[in-house]
Amino acid sequence: MDDRDKTDGQGGSIRPEISDDELSGRLRGLGSELDKVRAERRADAKAASASPDRASTSAGMTLAFRLGSEFVAGVLVGAGLGWGFDYFLGTSPWGMIVFLLLGFGASIVNMLRAAGETGRKTPPKGGR
Q1: 0.70 exceeded by the pTM?
Q2: Residue 71 — left, alpha, or beta (φ > 0 → left; ψ -120 to 50 → alpha)?
Q3: Cβ atoms 107, 70 nearer than 8 A
Q4: What is the pLDDT of residue 60?
Q5: Helix H segments across 51-116?
């Protein structure tokens, strides 16, 4: 046989035959590379699971925004009602002061209720 590559008759070359041993070696090499990649992905997944859970972080942020909005809404409603009383009844500044303080108190109660501190039906253990 010739040492030249086989051709397909149209000027293109045909690959020489590859032995089964060479193909088995390539397959083993690819298998070992695949095992390395899988091990790296498992290590990355374990590292990601060790970090704080995103669901709990987002739940905490949701509660924080809710509590903040409860506080701001209570104070603004109190101030608005106080301004309205002062405007229509001519009691300036007493309506604003009283209703602003009432709005502040109501917002604190709403925040405690939203956080679950005041809705208990049973008293804490150890207290009377």
Answers
A1: no
A2: alpha
A3: yes
A4: 80
A5: 54-89, 94-115
